Amino acid sequence: MREYQKMLKGALSILGVLVIFGGVLWVPSEGVQLQILVVMVGVLALEAGMWGLTQRLVPNERRFFELREEGDYLITLVRELNAAAVATNESARGGGSQLQQVVSLMHECVERMSAVARKTSPQHAERVRA
């Protein structure tokens, strides 16, 4: 399904560019309003591809939502770990305890990740189907 999304995204971008060029090159210059309308349609198609609006057209295949949420939280903790390490290097007082606290939170997060691995959440699955 992801390959289909990538193809659709690329196709929309290419279609948008082709419509823009077609509007400029083949629509008679006397019909400026039609030319502008065609170019705007092309720009909208191009932007739909660029912004990834195709994801709304293709259903989400994710099943392991809780694991994904924990992974996202772990990435947030990595940022906090870096900030705590920088704070520890800049001032010797107080930074070490913050660093250990973030490391502790990371360990807890990994434990939760192992608990939710291979589990699909029924409430998330219903939300995706709706």
Estimate percent helicity: over 70%
Instruction: Count the beta strands.
Output: 0
Number of helices: 5
Structural class: mainly alpha
Oligomeric nature of the chains: single chain
| Backbone CA Rg | 24 Å
Q: What order do the helices and strands follow?
A: HHHHH
The description of the largest β-sheet is: none
Q: Mean of the pLDDT scores?
A: 80
- How much of the sequence lies in strands comes to under 5%
Query: How many discrete domains?
Result: 2
Cα shape: elongated
Distance between the termini: 18 Å
- Poorly predicted sequence stretches spanning 5 or more consecutive residues: 124-130
Q: What key attributes describe this structure?
A:
130 residues; mainly alpha; 5 helices; disordered C terminus
Can you describe what's shown?
The protein has 130 residues and is mostly helical. The protein contains 5 helices and no strands. 77% of the residues lie in helices and 0% in strands. Helix 1 runs antiparallel to helix 2 and helix 3 packs antiparallel against helix 4. The protein is elongated, with a radius of gyration of 24 Å. The two termini are 18 Å apart.
SSE blueprint:
Layout: H1 2-25, H2 32-51, H3 65-90, H4 95-116, H5 122-129
Helix pairs in contact: 1-2, 3-4
Concise structural overview:
With 130 residues, this protein is mainly α. The chain contains five helices and no strands.
